[in-house]
Amino acid sequence: MKRDPQLPNWQLIIQAVDALNGCVSTSQIREYFIEHFLPEGRIKNIPYDSKMITVNSPSRIHYGGGKQPRRTDSNNQYDKLFLNNEKKFELYDPAKHGVWEIVKDHLGTLSIRKITEPDLKLIESTAEVIENAAEFRNIADGSSVAFDRFSNFFHWYYFPDLNVFAPSKFIGYKNTNLINYSGKGNGGETQAVLNKWFRKLEVGTKEYELVSAQLKDFSDFVGKKLSAKVFNGSGGLYLLSNAVNSSIYPDETTQGVYLEGRTKQVTINAIERNTRARKKCIDHYGAICFVCNFDFSANYGKELGSGFIHVHHILDIALVGKEYVVNPINDLRPLCPNCHAMVHRTKPAMHPNDLKAIIDKNT
């Protein structure tokens, strides 16, 4: 069999694997090429071309067909082979070999991952809900089913401490993340279990207006439109109910002027958050602990730790109990959870400078 000059080398590799009963080594493919395909100069490219079309080959991201983020169950022409434990190539079958994905992180780096479908067991605690919501923070990176379906979600749950919204089907099942989320499941059953801890905001209230404005900012950040169902009664906006704590050490931040105070229950018996004030503070000081200089990005990597920090009010607004104008630079400081907990060991909370002096004295 002579090589068709119009046929790419990777297609000939697929023909060879198929002809050899679908489980062959690189050397067997090479022998098949020598016997059936000419010119022999193409033989030297077999290792590279075979990696490009092998769904579980980490090296495929370096070759043409493997440079585009996608799932391998999308019938792409380059997702044709699977390398088994015996280092032999098989014709790829998603049902047998699982679904893999070429993913791009927020730095633009490509990698290969196997998608593990969530077991679709309903969550049993708020800790599980918050863990799932934290996974949704990287939705703007794209290259996920959740990102593609963003505009289809119309029940949104807000987590001020994480500064993120997440849909019910994403947070309602155990161990869900952007890699394994496939859109499967029943929104009705996830909403039913979430209703144990969350309350739906009443349209027309000040609280609803604030949260809906935050959701619109969030969708703008992601670069996606919101479903009209969110606001027309079919869907809704939700917050943790008054009796539920959203975190052990809540972040304390709730345009030119930032009004703080107005003690009310939003997630825990806490103060209304102003995410713009938080952003101004972090833009000025950085997402690094003001007291101990701990940098989550440097210690846990940019993908996991980037942007994570608590924001502390120097003036203990839980004791003020009234509305006042806060200056994000003068009145707020970024603190790691440990230092944040320590400053609140006293009432009123000690100044971060005082805690820094204690650390200096004891180290």
Description:
The protein is an alpha+beta fold and 363 residues long. The chain has three domains: 9-115, no CATH class; 126-240, no CATH class; 258-362, no CATH class. Helix content is 33%, strand content 15%. It has 15 helices and 14 strands. The strands form five sheets. The protein has a four-stranded mixed sheet with strand order 8-7-10-9, sandwiched between helices. Strand 7 (155-159) and strand 8 form a beta hairpin. It is elongated, with a radius of gyration of 26 Å. The N and C termini lie far apart (76 Å). The model is unreliable at 243-273 (pLDDT under 50).
Could you outline the blueprint of secondary structure elements for this entry?
Blueprint: H1 9-19, E1 23-24, H2 26-36, H3 46-52, E2 70-71, E3 81-83, E4 89-91, H4 94-97, E5 99-104, E6 110-115, H5 126-135, H6 145-148, E7 155-159, E8 164-167, H7 168-171, H8 187-194, E9 198-200, H9 206-222, E10 236-240, E11 258-260, H10 275-285, H11 296-300, H12 302-305, E12 310-313, H13 317-320, E13 324-326, E14 332-335, H14 337-343, H15 352-362
Parallel strand pairs: 7-10
Antiparallel strand pairs: 1-4, 2-5, 3-4, 5-6, 7-8, 9-10, 11-13, 12-14
